[in-house]
């Protein structure tokens, strides 16, 4: 069985750079710093599929932040991109490692 990989384009779905940056900025501003630190640690410890076990915690938090900020993305789009957006928001707030 091939190793599962997380594809940023999620098949054919892609985000425009400006839209992606706006979403990352919103998450960086609204999400607790402690949550962003935890996301970074989970990514480092568990690898690129860290988010699977946290879909109903951090995933829902990111979804709410984006919805409250006026992003009207389809559920599939949010499901595809929330982990990457959260990781980039953590990097933006905490700096690169």
Q: TL;DR?
A:
This protein is mostly helical.
**Care to count the β-strands?**
0
Calculate the terminal CA-CA distance, rounded to whole Å: 32 Å
Number of distinct helices: 4
The number of domains is 1
The major β-sheet equals: none
Would you identify the regions where 5 or more consecutive residues have pLDDT less than 50?
Answer: 1-6
| Secondary structure category | mainly alpha
What is the CA-atom radius of gyration, in angstroms? Answer: 13 Å
What global shape is seen? globular
Strand content bin: under 5%
Topology as a string of helices (H) and strands (E): HHHH
Query: How helical, in percent, are the residues?
Result: 55-70%
Q: What is the overall pLDDT average?
A: 87
How would you describe this protein?
By secondary structure, the protein is mainly alpha-helical. It has one domain. The chain is globular, with a radius of gyration of 13 Å.
Blueprint of the fold:
Layout: H1 17-30, H2 33-46, H3 55-68, H4 75-94
Helix pairs in contact: 1-4, 2-4, 3-4
């Amino acid at each position: 069985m091939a190793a599962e990989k997380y594809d940023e384009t999620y098949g054919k779905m892609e985000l425009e750079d400006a839209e992606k940056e706006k979403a990352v900025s919103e998450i960086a501003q609204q999400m607790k710093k402690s949550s962003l630190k935890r996301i970074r640690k989970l990514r480092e410890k568990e690898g690129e599929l860290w988010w699977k076990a946290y879909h109903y915690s951090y995933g829902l938090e990111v979804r709410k932040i984006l919805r409250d900020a006026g992003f009207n993305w389809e559920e599939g789009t949010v499901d595809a991109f929330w982990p990457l957006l959260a990781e980039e928001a953590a990097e933006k707030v905490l700096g690169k490692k």
